[in-house]
């Protein structure tokens, strides 16, 4: 939810609250406010105290992130004045949080991303709670497919680092408390509260090679999340991070207006980030990708972005019947020798057929499911691999020669390079 900075005017609207005294069966002069049950008072105060304790203890671990990026734009009227291009400075804001005493800060990739050789903004600075100075930060690792990034502030006093402990997103239950921290609309160090509305919502997150989002599990919450909250933590009632706030459903954007919270926000489960942290810390400013099986798509088509992989659903039923292919699936074009796919016995193209606007591999395996989830695109296969580690297996259902079979692929070190 990276957005250009803009002046935000807050209009405070006073609401006059009127009360009507119901006098039926109440003698004059004896009207009293209805008694609040003791259990209700106690529960309300316990929840309030719990929220205040979380904020007091862990809000100092929240980080306000600012970015600057120089962008060269074509001036549509430049020809009138002997020019043609102009350089603009794009600014953005977001959130992040400390994950260890070394000062590593976890945030969303899209908070610091930019069209540059490094994939990150020219200048990234952070600011800590209660302090005015901005501190330059550098990229430790980027994971566009996961929409995650790790940065570290330079020359930061270790005494100012307050890590927020990571929880376990696999044990979440719908209805449990959720506290979101961040900088909505640039209003730094803001806190909202809600519940976990859904513990395993599937939405497109991250950025694939073809530009499409990768379907991943996400935590849905009604805790208010707005532009600027991206990268901030979502915490449970113990103050542990259960997710990294990343997206909202915004009717404003759909109607062509400014994005705003509509009670439906999403966070990346913290376990996905926990699994990725060691690789991000070792990336040396580079990009961390999802594990690779060692295969390439066998159906590719021409698009505005160039040649891109596609799923069988793109073809007509007549074409698939003629080629004896399933209705949906990912055609394998090439299998890399020595890769996990090759060791599992997956078969690549035996021949190739071109057609206007693309080409398709013939005689190869077609992946139709990965760990029980339907596959019809490279992104579907990536989604099944995102949270895998070295030594894990992925079970593929493939169609070979019109017959379906199961193939188990074991991920080794080569899958993570």
TrEMBL record:
Gene3D superfamilies: 2.30.42.10, Trypsin-like serine proteases. Pfam families: PDZ_2, Trypsin_2. This is Putative trypsin-like serine protease. One of its GO terms (biological process) is proteolysis. Residues 300-402 form the PDZ domain. InterPro entries: Chloro_Bact_Ser_Proteases, PDZ, PDZ_sf, Peptidase_S1_PA, Peptidase_S1_PA_chymotrypsin, Peptidase_S1C. Belongs to the peptidase S1C family. It comes from Deinococcus deserti (strain DSM 17065 / CIP 109153 / LMG 22923 / VCD115). Keywords: Hydrolase, Protease. GO terms for molecular function: serine-type endopeptidase activity.
């Amino acid at each position: 939810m990276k957005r250009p900075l803009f002046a935000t005017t807050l209009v405070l609207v006073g609401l006059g609250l009127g009360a009507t005294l119901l006098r039926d069966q109440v003698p004059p002069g004896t009207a009293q406010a209805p008694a609040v049950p003791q259990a209700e008072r106690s529960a309300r105060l316990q929840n309030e105290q719990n929220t205040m304790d979380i904020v007091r203890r862990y809000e100092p671990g929240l980080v306000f992130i600012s970015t600057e990026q120089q962008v060269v734009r074509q001036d549509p009227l430049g020809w009138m004045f002997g020019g043609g291009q102009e350089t603009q400075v794009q600014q953005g804001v977001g959130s992040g949080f400390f994950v260890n005493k070394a000062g590593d800060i976890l945030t969303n990739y899209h908070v610091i991303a930019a069209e540059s050789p490094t994939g990150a903004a020219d200048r990234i600075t952070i600011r800590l709670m209660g302090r005015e100075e901005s501190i330059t930060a550098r990229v430790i690792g980027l994971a566009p497919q996961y929409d995650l990034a790790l940065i570290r502030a330079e020359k930061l006093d270790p005494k100012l680092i307050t890590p927020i402990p990571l929880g376990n997103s696999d044990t979440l239950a719908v209805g449990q408390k959720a506290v979101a921290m961040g900088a909505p609309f640039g209003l730094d160090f803001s806190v909202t509260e809600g519940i976990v509305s859904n513990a395993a919502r599937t939405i497109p997150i991250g950025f694939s090679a073809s530009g499409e989002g990768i379907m991943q599990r996400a935590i849905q919450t009604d805790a208010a999340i707005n532009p600027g909250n991206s990268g901030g933590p979502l915490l449970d009632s113990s103050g542990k991070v259960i997710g990294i706030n990343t997206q909202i459903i915004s009717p404003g954007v759909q109607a062509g207006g400014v994005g705003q919270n509509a009670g439906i926000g999403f966070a990346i489960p913290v376990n996905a980030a926990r699994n990725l942290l060691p690789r991000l810390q070792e990336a040396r400013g580079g990009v961390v990708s999802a594990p690779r099986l060692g295969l390439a798509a066998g159906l590719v088509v021409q698009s505005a972005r160039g040649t891109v992989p596609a799923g069988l659903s793109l073809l007509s039923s007549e074409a698939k019947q003629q080629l004896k292919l399933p209705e949906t699936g990912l055609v394998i074009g090439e299998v890399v020798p020595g890769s996990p796919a090759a060791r599992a016995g997956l078969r690549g193209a035996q021949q190739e057929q071109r057609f206007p606007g693309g080409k398709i591999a013939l005689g190869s395996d077609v992946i139709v499911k990965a760990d029980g989830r339907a596959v019809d695109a490279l992104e579907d296969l990536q989604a099944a691999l995102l949270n895998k580690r070295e030594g894990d297996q992925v079970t593929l259902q493939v169609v070979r020669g019109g017959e379906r079979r199961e193939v188990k692929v074991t991920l080794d070190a080569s899958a993570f390079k």
